[in-house]
Structure formats: C-alpha cells, structure tokens
Amino acid sequence: MKANHVLTTPLAERLYLEVAEPLPLIDYHNHLSVSEIASGRRPADLTGLWLRSDPYKHRAMRIFGIDEALITGDADPFDMFKAWCQVLPQLIGNPLYDWSALELARVFQIDWPLNPETAEKTWQAAGEQLADPSFTAQNLLRRFHVRYTAPCAALNDDLGPFAGLHGVAPSFRGDDLSGLTPQTIRLLEGQTGMAVDSLNSLAASLEKRLGSFHDLGCRFADHALDNGFCYHGDDGRNDERLRRLLAEGRLEPADAACLDSAVLRLAGSVYARFGWTMQLHLGALRQTSSRLRRIAGPAGGYAGIGRVATSELVALLDGIEQGEAGLPRTVLFCSHPEDSAALAVLGGSFSQDGVRGKVQLGPPWWWCDHLAGMRSYFETISAYGVLSVSIGMTTDSRSFLSLVRHEYFRRTLCGWLGEKAADGIFPNDFDVLAPLVKAVCFGNAETILAKSGLTELES
Hints:
Elements: H1 10-20, E1 25-30, H2 34-39, H3 46-51, H4 55-63, H5 77-87, H6 95-108, H7 119-130, H8 137-143, E2 146-154, E3 171-173, H9 182-192, H10 199-215, E4 220-225, H11 238-248, H12 253-274, E5 277-282, E6 284-285, H13 290-296, E7 304-305, H14 310-321, E8 329-334, H15 340-345, E9 359-361, H16 371-384, H17 404-422, H18 430-451
Parallel strand pairs: 1-2, 2-3, 3-4, 4-5, 5-8, 8-9
Antiparallel strand pairs: 6-7
C-alpha cells in the first residue's frame, strides 16, 4: 500500500501526516478478548491471531465457496491460512483488501502482496515475530498507541480480568436485558446480593452491578435493536409482567416486548445517572441462515442488512428522556445506508444545553465501514447533522489487528476533506481543517471520557 493511499491532494497528505497519524486511539466499542489481554499469552500462529476471530474474513471465504473446515473448522492452521491467501487477491474493491495490507504492514512490516505464491514466505516471516516473547496483546495495544479500549462485557460476566489493566475498560453489553430470563435475574441477584421482584428493585440491582463496571472505567453501554424492533410505552403493567416472568419462566411475545421496552427505559436512566454514553446498534438482520448459525454461532459473519423503524426509535429516546435522569449521551449506529440521514437529523431532536453532540449518528458500522461507506458518512453527518461533534471511529471488532481501521478512517477523512477543499467546497486552509481532523479522530472521544469523570487515560 502506498504511503499516500486515498490521500489524493497535498492538503490531504499534510492533514493526515501532521494531524491524524500521530494521534492516539480511543476504541470505545469492540469485542476483543480481555482474558487474552490480561494473560500475556502469545498467539500460537498467524491463523489464530488474524483469521479465527474475524467474521469479515469468514464471510468473504464463504462467498468464494471455501470449505467451512478451512474457515471455522479444525483444519491445519497453515492450510486455513493458504485458503485465505487464495481468496485475498480476488477481493479488490472490498475493504478486506486494504485492511489486510494494512494489518500485515503495520503489525509485521510485511509489504509484499499476499497470494498463494507468497503464503509460505509470509507465514514464516510472521511466525518469527510471533515467537518473540514480547508479542502479546498488551504490547500490540501499545504499538497501536491505544489510549483507551473497551471490550464488551455482559451483565453477569466475570470482570476480574479487567482489574489492573491500564487503558482497558469494559463496555457494558446490555443485550441480556432484552428477553430477560429468570436465570439472568437470579445471577444478577447473586452479583449484587439484592432481591429483584419489581422494576424498582431491578433498577437498584442493575445500578449496583453497573457500579462495578463504572469503577473499572466503563463509560459506554450498547444495545442491539435489530430489524423489526418495536417500542411499547408504559401501560402500568410491567411490574406484574416481571413477577409473572419470575414465577412462570416465560411471557407471551406481546408481554415480553412490553417488558423489554420498560427495561430499556430503566437501563437508559441508569446510564444517564452514571454519565455513560449509550450506543444503539440498529437494524441488523441477524436471522439469515440457520445452518450457518449452527456452525458459526450468533456472530459468524452471515448477518444481513435490515432497516430502522425511526418512529419506534424516536419513541424509545423520548421515553428515556422523560425519565427522572433524562436521556444519556447516545450514539446511533446504522446498518442500512439509507437510514443514515434520518438518524443524523435526530441530533437536533434530542439536544441538551451545554452538551455537544448529545445524540449523533455513529461512525460507519458493520457493512458500511469501507471507503464508500465512510465517505457517505462524512457527507451525511455534515449535511444532516454536524461532523465536528462526531465521536469518531471504533472498530467493533474481535481482532486485535483490526485496530488498523482507525488509520483507514483517518486517511479517508483527510482524503475527503482535501478533495472538498480542492474543489472549492471547503476552505483550502490547513489551519481551518486541522482542528476538525483532530476533533473527529481523537479529541471528541477524549472529551466525552473526560466529562464522564475518566480523566487519567493511559499515555
């Protein structure tokens, strides 16, 4: 990959090299293994580090008809790597083509093309580096200049691995609060020592449990509101529904949906009291191939793009805002490009005195975090919202090497700004555009953390 990749103007190159590139990373939502970070274990091989945890790569290999045994199965690791080398050269135009080049270059200083002919050479070169005792997840984070990273942790997960880690904090994954089960509630009671028999007691127990997250540096929570999400206002019957769930073990779908909405309102209020940022990942179509779900699990790279019911989302945000604690800072992640404008507009619908970007369109997510999707994001949030308050990029990834997507985002932003300036649309002025680049690439996320009380970030 060339040094000026997507930096097509002198101004773009200067913005990237002088402003964006030196900035540390804040990766506020991902699925990295905190146990791997804490343990200090070295990856066994390139397949284990690079391929096994990346559903993007799995999806591409399936499209080419690669046998599943060579994707997620128990085939020889080098054979799995060779299968990926067969696919990658054919992915021109797909973000994996650029990402993979960046991952090899930034982590292993490998700058030759990866293909079947270079597979063994690449495997050996990477393997020599992986054999170094210093090649650990913590050191990878340092090499990427990660200031703060937030791997997801569910409600009743063991938070022990986070203790003592600098710049690594849990991001609360709130999906266990949807479709509540008696088992989830009993485990929560065990965590907090508080009985749950009403929404008020559930709120108190949740607040106590999330206090443990907060003490470990957690400042973000997220919920997946998938394709078909429907919001239900409070009809006064949710305490009764909760008691029935605890007594009978299940609810009819209509009652379960009402209780889900009540718990979302409750959770949003807790986040607001803690000063957290709530992330809503919207519109994913997760139920596609039952066969692949059985093979690869719930996050196996086979999901599709659904839609966002904007009116239902607005009702949810309004319902949380009307609570005593108000609406927390909220980032809306969109899986369908055509829903982006509607979500960006909501930044002006739920504003708050003294808070920049209270509700905002999040960075490109899932099927949209590629060159075209990022450029579309910059266009959309600029025209329908405000780009300068954007919280910036996060990887939402299971792979440590995916941290290169911050570089991809920063290059694309600087390239887009440079082209706009060259066309006379934006000021062709480094001093005007440099603060915008710094804010979107790092400064806004840093400010959000500081305002939430987390002021001592690992440098």
